[in-house]
Amino acid sequence: EPKPKHILVFQHIPLYVKSPDEEDDYFNLQKDVRQRLMDRFKRAGVSHHDEQKLRQHCVKAVFSGHYHRNAGGRHGGLDMVVSSAIGCQLGDDTHGVRVVAVTADTVVHRYHSLEQLRARGMDEDLRKLLKT
Fold it and tell me: What top-level branch of life does the organism fall under (predicted)?
């Protein structure tokens, strides 16, 4: 049975907002839960003995909201992508949506403000990916 090329997780509350070792807060998961999930995501779908498969088939990105601002980071090959809100903003980001394009070869994502979408639509490279 073929393994998936990309494993992505979509959840409401982010693992972390800026750093995996940040303090527990309303906007992130508790440290013990966060670490357990990050460890599980790094091992997803593979045996513990096969490092090559571990790099190929682990969770590549976690997408979330809840923070109502764009944030996130990368730790141990795992992207934490926190998207701002289409409605109530808590930071400086404008109202918008994150477009995630997944192809056989890549995962590309961008946050687009509603103003940008109205004026010129999505970025051209995303449009091309979504057509394939």
Answer: Eukaryota
